């Protein structure tokens, strides 16, 4: 059976993993913090890890990108998007007035994953500016902490299923600042993902530019441009070795098997850039 490492049961990551692997028998191993999700597969305890990497509202998850680049050497084997619908969760009987209606002033603290909370900042500012905000390892962890402390005036931002599973109320549904909020996930691990097929492939590479080479980034991009190779994302991350030194992370809408791509990468290496392939993998769109 496939072993999959994932953030706490009831997290968005958990729901997204079940969506990707629906119809496949999976042994899920849950971890409280993302570093342990990465390490589980790096150390061979699991076959794959589920990594949230980008969100519609909050953009790239820098911490997870840096883990992928610096801390483990596990290829990307699939990407997919999954809706990130956040809700305010807590014990309504403790957080409402005599009329049974939610009374925001009774909430003293809101807990969630930092990325989930970042998706709801306008809502929090409007209704809960008086409350303390606290970051925890996942939305699911926030919900269980609230369940364990029902008389404290605490609420969580998390998933409806986590509220139900913990006997809590959904105080307010859909509290993200924009609709159509999705998170892009990566499946990383040593073996290719074969449970589902996709017609769309991507390749992710990491480029280190040579020092003192004017126009190097321009030349990198032109190697793709004149071959009409489509890029879906380009992002820079610090090398952490010297202030001002950055890697460029590029997502290419093409499989590494396509003849044009290896020649573009060779051309980029020829100008003195280091190219590391982070994976060439199927991409799945969400079909509600
Ligand atoms: O806390 C969770 O539920 C997670 O799965 C983590 C995470 C993230 O790291 O981006 C995943 C997706 C959501 O956008 C918010 C939080």
Automatic annotation (TrEMBL):
Cited Gene3D superfamilies: 3.30.70.260, Periplasmic binding protein-like II
Residue ranges occupied by any ACT domain in the UniProt entry: 205-282
GO biological process: L-phenylalanine biosynthetic process
GO molecular function, one term: prephenate dehydratase activity
Entry GO CC: cytoplasm
Top-rank lineage group of the source organism: Bacteria
EC number, UniProt record: 4.2.1.51
Substrates-to-products reaction catalysed: prephenate + H(+) = 3-phenylpyruvate + CO2 + H2O
SUPFAM superfamilies: ACT-like (SSF55021), Periplasmic binding protein-like II (SSF53850)
Site (described: Essential for prephenate dehydratase activity): 183
InterPro entries: ACT-like_dom_sf, ACT_dom, Chor_mutase/pphenate_deHydtase, Preph_deHydtase, Preph_deHydtase_CS
Keyword Lyase (UniProt): yes
Keywords: Amino-acid biosynthesis, Aromatic amino acid biosynthesis, Lyase, Phenylalanine biosynthesis
PROSITE patterns, A to Z: ACT, PREPHENATE_DEHYDR_2, PREPHENATE_DEHYDR_3
A family per Pfam: ACT
Pathway entry: Amino-acid biosynthesis; L-phenylalanine biosynthesis; phenylpyruvate from prephenate: step 1/1
Residue ranges constituting the Prephenate dehydratase domain according to the UniProt record: 2-190
Keyword Oxidoreductase applies: no
NCBIfam families: PRK11898.1
Protein name per UniProt: Prephenate dehydratase
Species for this entry: Paenibacillus nasutitermitis
Taxonomic lineage: Bacteria, Bacillati, Bacillota, Bacilli, Bacillales
């Amino acid at each position: 059976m496939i072993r999959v490492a994932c953030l706490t049961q009831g997290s968005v990551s958990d729901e997204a993993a079940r969506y990707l692997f629906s119809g496949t028998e999976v042994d899920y191993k849950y971890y409280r913090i993302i570093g342990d999700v990465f390490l589980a597969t790096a150390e061979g305890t699991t076959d794959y890890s589920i990594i949230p990497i980008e969100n519609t509202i909050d953009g790239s998850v820098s911490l997870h990108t840096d883990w992928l680049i610096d801390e483990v050497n596990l290829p990307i084997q699939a990407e997919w998007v999954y809706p990130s619908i956040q809700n305010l969760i807590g014990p309504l009987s403790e957080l409402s007035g005599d009329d049974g209606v939610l009374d925001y002033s009774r909430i003293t603290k809101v807990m969630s994953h930092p990325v989930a909370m970042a998706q709801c900042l306008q809502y929090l500012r409007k209704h809960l500016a008086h409350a303390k905000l606290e970051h925890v390892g996942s939305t699911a962890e926030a919900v269980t902490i609230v369940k364990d402390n029902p008389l404290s005036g605490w609420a969580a931002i998390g998933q409806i299923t986590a509220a139900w599973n913990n006997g809590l109320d959904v105080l307010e549904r859909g509290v993200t600042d924009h609709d159509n909020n999705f998170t892009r996930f990566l499946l990383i691990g040593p073996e290719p993902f074969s449970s589902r097929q996709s017609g769309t492939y991507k390749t992710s590479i990491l480029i280190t530019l040579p020092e003192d080479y004017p126009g190097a980034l321009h030349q990198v991009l032109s190697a793709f441009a004149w071959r009409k190779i489509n890029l879906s994302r380009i992002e820079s991350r610090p090398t952490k070795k010297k202030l001002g030194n950055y890697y460029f992370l590029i997502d290419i809408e093409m499989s590494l098997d396509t003849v044009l791509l290896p020649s573009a990468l060779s051309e980029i290496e020829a100008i003195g850039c280091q190219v590391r392939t982070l994976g060439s993998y199927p991409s799945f769109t969400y079909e509600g």
